[in-house]
């Protein structure tokens, strides 16, 4: 046996930005947190003001505001003005994209007045809301009525408009699909200023199906009717620790919500909520929740844990205790549960504020948490922003459930990021082929979790610093991002576009299907008014001319080229 030692791994030299990241907590504690707190409070006051208006008043204001949008769009002179996008500044939005298109010349349409819940209709079980309504606002309004959106985005600040035009997911998506699958109707202002209501089965059904994932490039959304479901006051949550290799962890995760006999629509076998947390290559905790009444939660012997209080341990760390304690059950107030990862920004909070999870900090200052993503972005400087692209991972890999084991192994081998978030979601087989769609012929396989009408997917959420970065070794974030995307293309997976894409345009359209999208772009005259979705997602500076030329070229081609080999 040779006693030669393995060659030492190369080290990356420490740079100025490493100090900025390491000591960012100083800016966070003294500036970001207090400012975030004031910001949250001003938004909250706005929500309260909005809630005090009558339904009639809100509807009247809505109609006036829609007319303002129409007027603004009609003012645009296509020969002089840039392409249209919303006036939300790049730092306010949740995503990781730099939104360079908003830094180049563009034609802003201000939708900031669209922040009202217009109606909560208990008969139709539908909430009609404007696009800037956020998740905290809607859960605050509906949960006390024992109602909830079927899929409610986890972070307080996510907006309805962003979740519909992009992607939205939660632990109930194994039943209801993605956020956009819970939409009943969309009110959209088209490029020519026409206002239409699109539903699954009216004359605008193509637009209805094309809007999700289109990133606001087909029209401007001014209201949405969203499915409501009945909920109860508490979530009875079971934390189940699992050990084994990544294949075994993936199987335990699938078994936690997908009966092996295929009885996927049986509510006695399928929980209301599911999420899996993989803490290391050999350990994970699977959580399954069922709504429970106050009466049940208050029964003798039940444990109630109001995790929403500022001094409570961060949720992902609390869940991890199951690895030591063994399986346990507790009742969590439903609204606290819905926003369980907000205070710690999943686990990203640990890097931003390394002592934020400590007992003393939680009790003394926990009420100031979380730092608002918008304020973090506004104060991050280009150094930190680039650091997050080059030395950090924030990516979701949406893959078929039967590929979760392979995906976990790939993530472990290539990135070594832990914890990993697992959240199942359906992708429906629809009468048309939108940008994302199930694997052709999936019905024939009878894979776990699939039904005749939908394939079960999983969001493998990878957010944190990779192992190489912790060890001080070189890591090429942009290259890894491109590899992740190619892995997804090979495995019929998708990457949500709030993350940066490193794909070429041809490969982008190998991941997503362009057929319906392109048809709608032509039919609803979006070309020349709104930029192509690829250009919104693509990294790097884009001049308006570059975008216009690409648009023109695209318009001249009947069908886009999509069948090029992986780059
Ligand atoms: N749990 C979850 O599901 C989570 C989801 N996310 C991601 O965050 C994103 C949402 O962030 P958020 O800040 O709310 O949204 P953004 O403001 O980032 O909007 C996302 C996209 O949707 C477009 N858009 C938003 N509103 C409208 C509208 N009214 N009409 C037309 N287009 C619109 C934006 O267009 P424009 O570029 O013109 O502004 C933008 O391209 C989601 O797409 C998702 O990918 C992040 C964390 C968790
Ligand atoms: C997709 C999901 C969740 C994703 C979150 C974990 C990330 C979404 C946007 C991320 C962030 C945006 C900007 C940031 C500013 C930086 O200076 C620090 C990091 C961050 C706060 C970053 C943190 C992670 C996100 C919130 C769902 C589907 C689970």
From TrEMBL:
UniProt GO MF annotations: Delta24-sterol reductase activity; FAD binding; oxidoreductase activity, acting on the CH-CH group of donors, NAD or NADP as acceptor
GO CC list: cytoplasm; membrane
Chain spans, region Disordered: 545-567
Protein's cellular compartments: Membrane
Keyword Chloroplast: no
Enzyme Commission numbers on file: 1.3.1.72
Biased composition (Acidic residues): 558-567
Keywords: Membrane, Transmembrane, Transmembrane helix
PANTHER family the record matches: 24-DEHYDROCHOLESTEROL REDUCTASE (PTHR10801), DELTA(24)-STEROL REDUCTASE-LIKE (PTHR10801:SF11)
Protein name: Delta(24)-sterol reductase
Domain FAD-binding PCMH-type as annotated: residue spans: 52-231
Record PROSITE patterns: FAD_PCMH
Chain segments annotated as transmembrane: 23-46
Top-rank taxon, per record: Eukaryota
Annotated GO biological process: steroid metabolic process
Natural source organism: Capsicum annuum
Membrane topology annotation: Single-pass membrane protein
Biased composition (Basic and acidic residues): 545-557
A Pfam family annotated for this UniProt entry: FAD_binding_4
Enzyme class: oxidoreductase
